[in-house]
Design goal:
The complex is a heterodimer of chains A (394) and B (190). Chain A is an alpha/beta fold and 394 residues long. Chain A contains 11 helices and 17 strands. Chain A has a domain of 184 residues. Chain A has a 17-stranded mixed beta sheet, with helices on both faces. In chain B, strand 2 and strand 3 form a beta hairpin. The longest helix of chain B has 14 residues.
């Protein structure tokens, strides 16, 4: 039976309780009640902060006539308009709305000012360090610059409008760091360039026509990049693949490129010693880097054709890294065994080459054939089978 | 001074006497005091659970007789309940309580406040937690003004942001001596 929730007067003087008791009352509150209570006074906000309530992530979406602050942990949305702010509680099937006037927003504040004020209050009170920004399609370039000026600290930035100014682009690039996620849908001027364009944890450019092959070939220890629309030709894709396979340094952890019509990667793959792994509609090729440089830590190379995309990933030989930007690869035993399988395949290839020689002594030939049998047996233990001399892991 | 007995009459060997702030004496069964960590520790320290030890009345300087009566009612009801274990209370969306508890705590907010202070002082975790949950549930769905009214919080914004009208600042910190937050308030000595 749910407790009766009528207000009984006189009042319950929360702030007069010992802090332990006050903290317990605050911790018992429903999250949206706690949020609204935190904002009834500055002092209450300070106590709420001490009550160790936390919000992990704030997602702010900007449109032309409002901003929406989404508090995923608390199950509510705060909407900021020019002349009003609304808190929408999203629970069960019944949404409950509260006006935040005259709660925490400013009378004559712009949408951006109110959004900044509210989000800062939430960040300070609930010690939230992660802000994701989404700039909606209808936001004008000028406003984008204002948003970027006002919200310089963020974890993810998703930019959806079709156009962007060079000023805004430079502002985004200047603030790049390896904890940031960037996704830009806009067309980027063909002559644009910036030294930080790949210096994100994850940079996704829906328009990559401004990126040149040299930019990719010169990558060094880039975390992750996805390029969608681009002008790369078959020859350029082959060059990129060959450079990555033979590079003495780690160019990137992962790289995703949309392949234009008619472009295939089989020509390069056919020349490699690989084992293949099929997962649903995907075939993934594993191979070793064609270098022994100590500067290249990611020696296990994974090449995947996924729908229109080519996905390249480099893995360390000493440990399995389970994370990946697109979650195409999940942790699997295959990654634990990949390095060993590839080493055995390489050894088998060397022996096969030896066996092709006509001048081998019979005893040597027999020994090599036995060695091959042992290698195949070892590979079979690791679920490797051969179809038309191509190794597959099943 | 009068001496009131709870529903079950404890014998002198297995009880202690507590004295409320207004001088009223209550005879408490030692079994009941197990629910109060403060009293249980005191009984253990003074060895009041031994029959050969003289038991002096225990003064409870900041608990009134009305509050003590209410607390004894709670202790009696929960006499045979298993030991209280704190669950994860953070951000639970709804709490349900047995009918007896609802009726027991169907009291005005100011009495609830006093009872919570007493439960905190005597360290009765089940009662303490139940009151906190009920108070938390009483502000569900309230507007800012209603929350301020229920919890007696005055705004500390100098001017209303919309009307520009000066607003009385929250001066409770100076009134109640809680200018700084005390993370471990020390109760007055028993």
């Amino acid at each position: 039976m749910e407790i009766q929730r009528e207000i009984k007067t006189p009042c319950f003087s929360l702030l007069h309780l010992p802090f332990v008791a006050m903290k317990h009352v605050l911790q018992c509150m429903d999250s949206t009640d706690l949020l609204r209570t935190a904002f009834v006074s500055k002092r209450m906000g300070r106590y709420t902060k001490l009550a160790t309530a936390r919000i992990k992530l704030i997602e702010i979406e900007f449109t032309n006539n409002r901003s929406t602050i989404n508090l995923l942990d608390f199950g509510c949305l705060l909407e900021c308009y020019k002349d009003k702010d609304i808190m929408r509680e999203k629970k069960n099937e019944n949404d409950r709305n509260y006006s935040l006037m005259p709660w925490i927003n400013m009378r004559n504040g712009s949408i951006l000012e109110n959004t900044a004020k509210i989000s800062n209050l939430i960040r300070n009170t609930f010690e939230c360090s992660n802000i994701d920004l989404v700039i909606a399609e209808d936001v004008l370039p000028k406003k984008t610059e204002e948003i970027l000026e006002m919200f310089q600290q963020y974890r993810e930035l998703t930019y959806k409008p079709r156009s962007i100014t060079t000023t805004a682009l430079n502002k985004i690039m200047d603030s790049a760091n390896l904890q940031h996620f960037l996704n830009i849908a806009a067309e980027i001027p063909k002559d644009f360039n910036h030294k930080n364009k790949f210096k994100f944890d994850n940079a996704q450019y829906q328009d990559a026509t401004w990126i040149k092959l040299e930019d990719i070939l010169n990558m060094e220890n880039v975390r992750g990049v996805q390029l969608v629309r681009n002008n790369f030709t078959q020859s350029q894709v082959n060059t990129l693949l060959k450079r990555w396979l033979a590079s003495d340094i780690d160019m990137f952890y992962w790289f995703i490129l949309e392949l234009n019509d008619g472009i295939e990667i089989t020509e390069v793959l056919d020349e490699l010693l690989t084992f293949k792994f099929r997962r649903e509609a995907m075939t993934i090729d594993f191979t070793l880097a064609k270098t022994t440089s100590s500067f290249r830590e990611r020696q296990i190379l994974v090449i995947c054709r996924f729908e229109r995309y080519m996905v390249l990933t480099g893995w360390r030989t000493d440990k399995v890294i389970t994370e990946c930007g697109e979650d195409i690869y999940e942790r699997d035993d295959i990654y634990d065994n990949a390095y060993n399988i590839l080493k055995l395949l390489k050894r088998k290839q060397e022996i096969d080459t030896e066996l092709e020689k006509n001048d081998l002594e019979l005893a040597t030939r027999r020994r090599l054939v036995e060695d091959v049998k042992k290698l195949v047996a070892e590979l079979e233990e690791m679920h490797v089978i051969f179809e038309n001399e191509q190794a597959f892991v099943i | 001074m009068s001496c009131e007995e709870p529903t079950t009459s404890p014998t002198p060997e297995n009880n202690i006497t507590v004295v409320s702030s207004d001088g009223k004496e209550f005879l408490l069964d030692l079994k009941l005091t197990e629910q109060s960590e403060t009293l249980a520790r005191l009984i253990s320290n003074f060895e009041y659970d031994r029959t050969d030890v003289k038991k002096d009345p225990v003064p409870l300087g900041n608990i009134t007789s009305a509050q003590m009566q209410k607390i004894i009612e709670w202790l009696q009801h929960h006499r045979y309940y298993p030991k209280w274990e704190q669950n994860d209370i953070h951000y639970s969306t709804s709490f349900t309580f047995e009918t007896w508890v609802e009726e027991y705590l169907n009291i005005p907010n100011n009495e609830m406040f006093e009872l919570l202070n007493a439960a905190n002082y005597l360290n009765i975790p089940r009662l303490f937690s139940t009151i906190c949950r009920i108070m938390a549930s009483r502000i569900t769905g309230k507007s800012a003004e209603q929350i301020r009214t229920v919890l007696n919080i005055k705004t500390d914004v100098k001017n209303d942001v919309y009307t520009g009208i000066p607003i009385q600042e929250d001066s409770s910190s100076s009134e109640d001596g809680m200018s700084e937050i005390s993370l471990s308030p020390s109760p007055p000595p028993i």
